[in-house]
Write a structure and sequence with these properties.
alpha+beta, Umud Fragment, subunit A, 7-stranded antiparallel sheet, 3 helices
């Protein structure tokens, strides 16, 4: 029973962490529009198929700030688009040439992007976050979103209700036990008093 309680507490803690992480990821991604960076690092979600098969839609990438002189042909850069259809968008494309400006292109695209300045670069992709990518793809599916958020949330509510019910039952059991102890004590006192009276009566009768 003790092991079961510990297991349920661990499950509750894990589910709480999961729900919080889901909410944080969803809120940050929606509010920031893929623009949040911390300590020179940023996490970005791939929104189009322009980099397939390297990166698929829904993949989450970790990018790090990069010095201008460290950018090389073949690097995958995350940058802020400023021209035409790219304007205002966060783009992740591969460097294909470098001169006075940086030339990039999506792997799956037929045409090169508008040239970009170093000032537009957000960072260089250093890793695809496999676990978060799988999670992100699930989140993009409406059904899976509700399953990932509301199922753990529902289980948490169930566990909370269960804890309340068990606590209420334990308190009730303790009160019943206390009442039984009090009743037994009263009975013992009555029996002792009765025995004393009987003994006194016997003594008086002997006299």
């Amino acid at each position: 029973m003790k092991a079961l309680k510990i297991g349920l507490k661990l499950l509750k803690a894990l589910l709480t962490i999961l729900v919080i992480l889901v909410l944080i990821i969803v809120i940050v991604q929606k509010v920031s529009g893929n623009k949040v960076r911390m300590f020179g690092y940023g996490v970005y979600t791939v929104l189009t198929g322009s980099m397939e098969p390297e990166y698929e839609v829904g993949d989450m990438l970790l990018a790090k700030e990069v010095a201008k002189d460290d950018i090389k042909v073949g690097n995958d850069l995350v940058y802020q688009g400023e021209v035409g259809d790219f304007s205002g968008k966060i783009v992740t494309h591969r460097v294909i040439a470098i001169d006075s400006k940086i030339h990039t292109k999506g792997i799956a695209n037929d045409f090169e992007d508008p040239e970009i300045e170093y000032s537009q670069v957000q960072g260089r992709v250093i890793s695809k976050l496999t676990v978060l990518s799988a999670f992100s793809k699930l989140m993009n599916n409406t059904v899976m979103f509700y399953i990932m958020v509301f199922v753990p949330f529902s289980i948490l509510i169930f566990l909370d209700i269960r804890d309340i019910v068990l606590e209420t039952q334990e308190k009730k059991a303790e009160k019943n036990k206390e009442a039984e102890v009090i009743e037994e004590t009263k009975t013992e006192i009555v029996e002792e008093k009765t025995t004393e009276i009987i003994e006194e009566v016997k003594e008086e009768n002997k006299e």
